[in-house]
Write a structure and sequence with these properties.
Belongs to the 5'-nucleotidase family. It is built from 13 helices and 30 strands. It has 604 residues and is α/β, with parallel strands linked by helices.
């Protein structure tokens, strides 16, 4: 498949003041003193006043140093004739090559990331607390990263260790005789403060400098991080409003004389189309993208010149006007290293600011048809050799692809498998006595692919593949909920914190209901359709429900689960999945992909 060159869009300020601005720049340029820099062939414009700075960015890598499997490793592209195609992409070996190619002949190039570089990672990285991923980004010359919610999966101390280095306090050094050195790049956490000291737990900003060019970077994660991370992971921390925090430090940078500012924001948007090269500035600037980032972008101070975003795993390069009505680029590069964004920031040496009328931005595929970076290949092989004894162990067999993360409908086949596994695991009276199981969709991180990834054979599910699907080591729980509370939970999927971006819980066999998406809010749940084993749910009856501990803590916008009674904690979710495959699949009788027909969805 030939990778077509990506379109680049020129952002122009369509205001009556544009001509006046251009004239003013010309007058100032003419007034430059003798000895001012002239064109050097490295991206500067002929008048010598401005220089083009290349900003390369990405987000939500999640430890995918190996190419992600199945649909998790594909991006969708719109071709010139209007048709679409899937392109295999991602993996550290290819991302490194792409970034290095892009930097060639660009003397002013800075690389930044907008959070979730680590966490929810495949076994090759997750088994070693994501040290392999940090090492990979050191080799790729990443300059700066903002934190995301997954940087807090293992808590504040572990995040600090990823920054500063040192061996893991419990598991020790990952490689014999080697001490983990930490990241060469600064992690920024401007809106995450210590509850007691009220000070940021990491640097709030940094300034990138090159030959007189100065660009400030501010890093924030979404304010709602405590709602999607375990309570232990955010203990003692406070998360603040994204707009207020960015504005605070933009003002500080401005006073320091840093006029060019980029915000790294781990919060994102939802484009109207999934194709990475979809024009989200049609019919007007930013009209093709919605979601939390749009309000954030419209609210952040005009002092900030560009927003690199993430979290939603979507791809877009749009222009959402700032509060002054000026164009401002807002980008996101999908996830797992499948894309990178190339943004040209035209830096005015006279003012020290970005000329907003000359900002280019586009996403580019990290194609697997290009050469692998040899240093990344060595890194993957080295860590893979350490992980292989655990990763290669077969835990089950499947007769075809079982989609999870890549499923196109709210209920996924892999969600059904996980729901059934958790119910069966927690059903015995001495293990919880569960009658049904619920699984948060965000906890399903990949698909199970029939085609062999290595030499294990087609249809074999390895421990490493199971870990990639469920990498959090969430402990299973069983709690008491009334029928009324269960209905409330279903309503919370599509209302409150989840109204704009629904989170549809995956359900075990025997539990069914109808979701009417033609309605709004909690009315989308057809309450009299909710049944367990064919019988209508009794609002006053108590039911025993299995779920992971993260969900039982009320996270992901399901506060009703915190009211569950008689909580019993079992073993991990991955152990439940492994046990299920052991019981229901074999080489001669593999598990078939479920139909995913437990939730009836009425579409708009």
């Amino acid at each position: 498949m030939t990778v077509q060159p990506e379109r680049r869009r020129r952002v122009r300020r369509l205001t009556t003041g544009a001509a006046a601005l251009a004239a003013a720049v010309g007058v100032l340029a003419a007034a430059l003193p003798a000895g001012a820099e002239s064109t050097d062939g490295g991206g500067q414009h002929a008048q010598g006043r401005t220089v083009d700075v290349q900003l390369l960015s990405f987000n939500d890598f999640h430890g995918n140093i190996e190419p992600p499997p199945g649909s998790s490793g594909e991006v969708s592209r719109e071709k010139p004739d209007g048709s679409t195609e899937k392109v295999a992409a991602g993996g550290a070996e290819y991302l490194a090559t792409s970034l290095r190619k892009a930097r060639k002949d660009n003397p002013y190039s800075v690389t930044a990331a907008a959070g979730d570089l680590v966490g929810a990672s495949p076994l090759i990285s997750g088994l070693f607390h994501d040290e392999p991923t940090i090492e990979a980004f050191n080799k790729m010359d990443l300059d700066v990263a903002g934190v995301g919610n997954h940087e807090f999966d293992e808590g504040r101390k572990e995040l600090k260790r990823l920054q500063d280095g040192g061996c893991h306090p419990k598991d020790g050094c990952s490689e014999e005789g080697k001490v983990f050195k930490g990241s060469d790049f600064p992690y920024l956490a401007a809106n995450v403060t210590d509850e007691k000291t009220e000070r940021p737990i990491l640097k709030p900003y940094t300034v990138w400098k090159k030959k007189g060019v100065k660009i400030g970077f501010i890093g924030v994660t979404l304010e709602g991080t405590p709602d999607i991370v375990s309570e232990e992971g955010v203990k003692g921390l406070k998360f603040h409003d994204e707009i207020k925090t960015v504005d605070k430090y933009a003002k500080k940078l401005d006073k320091m004389g840093v006029k060019s500012i980029v915000a790294l924001i781990h919060e994102g948007g939802l484009p109207k189309k999934p194709e990475y090269n979809y024009d989200c500035d049609s019919p007007g600037a930013g009209d093709g993208v919605s979601g939390p980032i749009t309000d954030i972008a419209k609210g952040i101070s005009p002092k900030v010149d560009a927003l690199v975003t993430g979290h939603t795993h979507e791809a877009y390069a749009c222009n959402i006007p700032d509060p002054a009505g000026n164009p401002r680029t807002v980008t996101s590069a999908s996830s797992f290293g499948k894309l990178y964004t190339d943004t040209t920031l035209t830096y005015d040496r006279g003012t020290g600011d970005i000329v907003r009328t000359k900002v280019d931005s586009a996403n580019h595929v990290v194609s697997r048809r290009q050469a692998k970076a040899k240093d990344m290949t060595s890194l993957v092989k080295r860590w893979g050799k350490l992980a292989d004894p655990i990763a290669d162990k077969p835990i089950g067999y499947i007769s075809g692809d079982i989609d999870g993360r890549g499923a196109e409908k709210p209920e996924s086949p892999l969600g059904d498998v996980i729901g059934d596994a958790q119910l069966e695991f927690m059903k015995p009276e001495d293990k919880g006595g569960a009658q049904l199981a619920l699984m948060n969709p965000g906890g399903i991180r990949s698909d199970l692919v029939y085609k062999a990834a290595e030499d294990e054979g087609d249809g074999v599910v390895t421990y490493g593949e199971g870990f990639t699907v469920q990498p959090f080591t969430n402990m299973m729980t069983a709690i008491d909920l009334t029928g009324k509370q269960l209905v409330t939970a279903l309503q919370q999927q599509v209302s409150g914190a989840n109204e704009k971006s629904p989170k549809i819980l995956q359900v075990s066999e025997g539990f069914s209901y109808t979701l009417d998406m033609t309605k709004s809010g909690k009315d989308r749940v057809v309450t009299d359709s909710v049944k367990l084993d064919g019988k209508a749910l009794d609002p006053d009856k108590t039911y025993r429900v299995a779920m992971n501990e993260f969900l039982a803590g009320g996270n992901d916008g399901f506060p009703v689960f915190k009211d569950g009674k008689d909580k019993l904690v079992g073993k991990s979710d991955l152990e439940a999945l492994e046990a299920y495959f052991g019981e229901h699949s074999s080489k001669s009788d593999p598990l078939d992909p479920p139909k995913a027909d437990r939730i009836k969805v009425v579409e708009k």
